[in-house]
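agent: user wants the structure for Peptidase M14 from Planococcus salinus. delegating to structure tool.
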Amino acid sequence: MKKKWMSTVGAVTLCTALAMPAYAVETENKTETHHHEHSISGFIDYAELQKSLKQIEASSKGTVQVDVAGQSHKGLDIYTATVGTGDKVILVQSEIHGNEKTGTVAILDLLKKLSNNSKQSREIREELTLVFMPMMNPDASEGDKRRNSLTWDEVIEQYPQLSEVAPSWNYLDSGISQSYDYGANPGFDVNRDFNPELDYEPEAEDFPGASNLPGWFITPEAQTSRDVYKSLQEEFGNVDVFIDLHHQGMYYVDGTADPVTLSLSAQFVPDPNTPEGEKYAEYADNYNYDFSRQLNLAAYNELQSYGNSKFTNISLYSQGLDLPGTALGSYALNGSGTVLFEVRGQTQMMGQKEKGQLVKSVERGLTGIIESVADGSVESLDPDDYEDIPLTSYRPSN
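agent: tool returned. relaying tokens verbatim.
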């Protein structure tokens, strides 16, 4: 949201608990660069994202506005695409982990539909302001890896007050993780670098931290997401909905042998209004768990409406989490209704298999949320029905 899309877009050459990869549109004559047995040549890369965003903005005749919100560690632009002028704000981000690409394609597909001249699209645009961040971590996306490319030494250069402390717990600089050599190419899990105190500055006593503690905004990618979030708060007073698009491994709908197509969740920190969440008491007035549950139900009901199909294999991601260092946890404490999407599979596990179905699952789930927020029907859903969604199981049931 900081500087407008430049007229010339050039080709650029050059993950912990919550998430995991992806499936995108087919492209031709794309170089197959990957570090495992699965080709990623059918997935959208950074240069293709730039091209697609430029085309969508141009064809929308001003309905979609594409902006540069910030830069990655390696200097790649991180984009926002905004559509709609309504008072209700929905922020959607994808590819904070670079090997989780399905959400990026779903976002591009939705932008095309939301910017058309249909009566429904016009009505949605009148009610909502939708801000999409389709590739939050472009360095990792280009490397088909979970983490970014920032080193601890570079963090210390920027924050010398951290020179005597151990690296943050979400930093990996050794070994092979998910088929990627982080010993040779260290980096941070950006989705653990958030803090509910949006103006937080790194302090030595907060390192190395832990999964159930806030992050630090030391990565440029997390800083960019935070800056977009704060700018929307300043403009609208609140970011009503925040949705984070991820991938997970192969899991099953609890009590069945059905592989999960998509897991959802509304819960990332304990409710500040309960004894379990007392440490977050300063955020109690903002936190709205019931609204988060209603949003998740809107996505669940939309996917269930397709009858007996793989779209109905929806489950709840792990509950009872305390992850304030995630974007979902931090933004929930700041007053946003939150939704996690966890699509089945990763590039190092499944390659392009079933990518069309998985992209469509994300797109339809997002559509259920967008339409129900626009027309207000989400508010009529019973939040307690969220508890009836089956849980995710690690093993198929006999």
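agent: one observation worth passing along. Residues 355-375 form the longest helix (21 residues).
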